[in-house]
Amino acid sequence: PGYYNISVRWADRHVPASPFRIAVAGHRPDATQCHLVGSDVQRQFFKVGDTYSVIVNCERAGPGQLQVNVTGAIVDDSEFLVNDLGDGCYELTLAPSQPGEYTLELGWADESIPGCPLRMYFANDVDVRKCLLEGTGLAHAELGNRAEFMVITRGTGLAPLSASLADAKGRSMPVEVIQTGATTHCCGYTVTSASTHTLHVRYGNVDVPGSPFVIRVTQPFAPERCKILGGKVKDCVLGKPVQFYVESKGAGPGNLTVEAFSSNGQKCFKGHLSQTVNGKTLCRLNLPAVDRYLASVRYDGVDIAGSPFRFRVLQPPKPSMVMAFGQGLSNCTVGQRGDFIVDVTDAGSGMLGIRVHGPRGGFSVDTARLPSNDKQILVQYHPVEPGEYQINITWADEPIPGSPFLLAVYRAGSADVGLNV
Is the pLDDT of residue 340 over 90? Predict the structure, then answer.
C-alpha cells in the first residue's frame, strides 16, 4: 500500500495530466500507521497569539479519511485549519483568540490515531507570583491518609494548574487537582512510603512561589495504640511517687500528658514524663496529700486505653503505732480457742503479717476484722499440739512493739497469715 506516480507518454512526452498520482490500499485501513510529527506534539502550554501546529502522516494507513474534532473556545473558523499536503499528510494549525483548554481528537477510518487526544492550553500573560497556597498538605502527610492543600489563582491570569509528587527514590505518585471554583482548586494525594517527599505545584507550567515543597511523612495519629503497661496502677504511700509506663509505638506524632485531680476536683497535678531506652515513657506523679485521686493519661488530648483511672495516696506505714493485746498472746491449752486483737488504727497503710514458729502442725491462724471497728483485727487459733511457740507480728514487714510474742501450748506446727489494711 502507499502512493504511486504513473507516467503516460507519447513520443517521450507526457500526455495531459501525466504523471498520475494514485493511492494503493492494503487489505484494510490501519490507524496505528498514522504518525504525529512536529515539535508542538509534546508541548502543552501556549500563549494566546501563538500557533499550535502538527502534521499527521497517514501515508501507510490504508484507505480512509482523516477525521478531526476540536473542542474549546473557537470563535472563528480561521482559528483552526486543516491543510492537505498531499501524499497522505495533513497539517493542522490552531491559533485561538481566547484562553482556555483545547482538545484535538484525530481518527482514521473511524479509529483513533495513536497519541490522541491532544490537549493544549492557551493563556494570556500569567503572574504565578499571585498564586496563594494553603493547607497542611504542603508540609506534612500521614502515611496512608489523604493530605490536601488549596490553590487560589485570583488575579493570576488564566492557565492550567498541575501538581506532581515524588518520594526520596524519585518514584512519582498522582496528585488529584479538582477545580472547586472560578479561581480555587483543591489538591490531594496519599503517600505510601515513609520517606520525605517532594511536591511540585505549577501554574502555566511554571512553579508557584515556594515550589517545590518538602513533605514530611509521619505515621497516622492513632491514640488507641497507646496503652498503660503493667495493668492497674497501684495505690502508693505519701512521699513516694505513683509511677507507671506508657507505650505509644505506632500512635503517630503527638504529645503525652498525665494529670491527677484531687477528690474534690479543685486541684490538678501534672505528671513528670521521661523516655526510656526501649522507647517507652515513664510517668511519675508526686502528690502532696493523702487523698483519692483521678488520673488522666492523654495522647494529644485523647484519653488512651485505661484512662482515666482512680488510685489512693495513703499514709506511710507506722509499725510503732500498732498494738497487739489479749490472753492468746501468752498461753493457751490444747482443745481451747486462743485469740488476741491487733489494733492498726494509727498505723497508716501497710500489710499485717503474722508468722508462728513452733511444733509442726501445732495450729493454724485465722483473722477477721471486728464488725465494730475495721481497724482492729481479731486473730484466732485452735492448738492441737503442746509446746512453746513464737508469734511474730509485722506491719509493712516491720516488727510491731512487743514482737515476737512467746506462747505456751502443747504441740508442734507453724502457720502464716497476711492481711492488707
Answer: yes
Three-state DSSP string of 260-314:
EECCCCCCEEECEEEECCCCCEEEEECCCCCEEEEEEEEECCEECECCCEEEEEE
Q: Cα dist. 225→78, 144, 303 in Å?
A: 66, 16, 11
d(CA 200, CA 219): 23
Q: What angle do CA 306, 311, 316 make, to 5 degrees?
A: 150
Asked if residues 246 and 281 have their Cβ atoms less than 8 Å apart, the reply is yes
Separation CA 115–CA 95 (nearest Å): 21
> How are beta strands 132-134 and 52-57 bridged, if at all?
unpaired
Give the model's pLDDT for residue 1: 62
> Which run of H or of E encompasses 93?
strand 89-94
Q: Is 347 exposed, middle or buried (0-12, 13-18, 19+ CB in 10 A)?
A: buried
Extended beta strands in 111-209, E state: 111-112, 118-123, 132-134, 140-142, 146-152, 161-166, 172-173, 176-179, 184-190, 197-203, 206-207
40, three cell numbers: 508542538
Task: State how far the Cα of 322 lies from the Cα of 17, in Å rounded to an integer.
Answer: 134
3-state secondary structure of 225: helix
Enter the DSSP assignment of 137.
Answer: G
Mean pLDDT of 18-29: 75
Looking at the DSSP bridge assignments, the partners of residue 269 are 260
Residue count of the chain = 421
- Model confidence at 323, pLDDT cuts 50, 70, 90, reads very high
Closest by Cα among 269, 256, 252 to 297: 256
Gap between the Cα atoms of 190 and 197, Å rounded:
11
Output the CA–CA distances (angstroms, integers) from residue 224 to 300, 304, 337, in the order listed: 11, 6, 57
Q: Return the CA Rg of the chain.
A: 46
Longest dimension (CA), the chain: 159
Residue 24: CB atoms within 10 A of its CB come to 10
- Is pLDDT of 354 > 80? yes
Kindly indicate the confidence band of residue 411, based on its pLDDT and cuts at 50, 70 and 90.
Answer: low
Give yes or no for a contact between 107 and 30, defined as CB atoms under 8 angstroms apart. Answer: no
- For the stretch 56-84, pLDDT in tens is 999 888 888 899 999 888 888 888 999 99
Interatomic CA distance for residues 208 and 130, integer angstroms: 9
